[in-house]
Amino acid sequence: MGMKWVGVGSVYLLVVGLIVGGLRLCNGGISSSYARRSNDISADMPLNSDVFAVPHGYNAPQQVHITQGDQEGKAVIVSWVTPDEPGSNEVVYWAANSELKKRSMGTVVTYKYYNYSSGYIHHCTIKNLQYDTKYFYEIGIGNTTRQFWFTTPPEVGPDVPYTFGLIGDLGQTFDSNRTLTHYELNPAKGQAVLFVGDLSYADAYPLHDNNRWDSWGRFVERSVAYQPWIWSAGNHEIDFLPDYGETEPFKPYVHRYFVPYKASKSTSPLWYSIKRASAYIIVMSSYSAYGMYTPQYKWLISELPKVNRSETPWLIVVMHCPLYSSYVHHYMEGETMRVMYEQYFVKYKVDVVLSGHVHAYERTGRVSNIAYNIENGLCTPSNDGSAPVYITIGDGGNQEGLLYEMVEPQPKYSAYREPSFGHAEMNNRRT
Ligand SMILES: [Fe+2]
């Protein structure tokens, strides 16, 4: 099978060729001659920007977003916020080819973060959907009812073509808006987004101003209300502020972004798995305990043997912090997790590990560094046909800007690297 990454314009060019089925190693070692270089630390868009506009009408639903709601792709979690009062938890939905309207009832949660009180955050799981079917859905009451639509994935199976968008470290700058627009206009038409962490960057504001979580929710609604984004948490989701009494890590994130973690027998929304089309996707948490005997470790060790490669030949791991990165910033931050988990990724022949965190693009060859033990000195990554390709795609466009400084010379494990804002598309269509 072939995998193709689709470029989306000059600044956003991320064209790489990759053969992952035939053990052909990519040791190009290319640092792109093109890299966006300017005083381009991009500012956040002001709160009165049109992309943050509040929908008209009293208590109108806002920040609408969907994600997969079960492990097989026959359920969708619809989430939204009502600002003034709880309103209705109900989603009305119907297949595009049917007049029959169905209803599903959700729940509502709120949270406080220091001096911020959230709106009413609704989560409703719609179950027993048909595969490969367009559905309309409505939320809200009376004249503030809002209507959206989504298309369910095809039935899980080995030869099911599917296209994922890959976006990471998005933030809410003018560049973030350009990245999202490029994604929306890309003719490759991503059908779902694998989001590699760091969503709103609200924590850049004093007291982690959670109003910036709300503005981010309104900003991305134009995509995520219509196709599922598969979430993973980054360091900007931790929101740990003990001096102000905020000692519960990930509080805003886990209240706002429900995921179907229980369907994969996970005990935390920060790590879970789903199947979608021909892919088995495992989401991990770089910022939760992952050492031996921890809940995340135990879950992953029991999860990997469950993957049936004749059903889902593509095994994808998503974690925010890259295990291989040859940019200077954040260098080796993922090393302890690599030491812990790389052996399992090789053993179970993970195809690709997707990460963000580093605000640039990089792709490795199939390499591993599992031969090393504390005495033998074999500490250089080597070509390994059972190892994943590692992709860093943390270049969505947030306010921290791009990272240009690279480890030189380019390590052999690094196949391609380029510091430009953008996103990627990943598909299993034969080319
Ligand atoms: Fe990060």
Helix content: 10-25%
Tell how many strands the DSSP assignment holds: 26
Form type: globular
Q: Oligomer, anyone?
A: single chain
Structure report:
There is one protein chain. This protein is an alpha+beta fold and 431 residues long. The protein contains 5 helices and 26 strands. A hairpin with a 2-residue loop joins β17 and β18. It starts with a strand and ends with a strand. The N terminus is likely disordered. Bound molecules: fe (ii) ion (FE2). The site of fe (ii) ion has 7 residues, from loops.
Write a concise synopsis of the structure shown.
Helix content is 13%, strand content 26%. The chain contains 5 helices and 26 strands.
Topology:
Layout: E1 2-5, E2 17-19, E3 30-31, E4 62-68, E5 76-82, E6 90-95, E7 102-105, E8 107-109, E9 112-113, E10 116-117, E11 120-126, E12 134-139, E13 146-151, E14 163-167, H1 174-185, E15 192-195, H2 211-224, E16 229-230, H3 251-256, E17 272-276, E18 279-283, H4 295-303, E19 314-318, H5 335-347, E20 352-355, E21 361-364, E22 367-368, E23 382-383, E24 389-393, E25 414-418, E26 424-427
Parallel strand pairs: 3-25, 14-15, 15-16, 18-19, 19-20, 20-24
Antiparallel strand pairs: 1-2, 1-26, 4-5, 5-11, 6-7, 6-12, 8-11, 9-10, 12-13, 14-26, 17-18, 21-24, 21-25, 22-23
The protein binds fe (ii) ion.
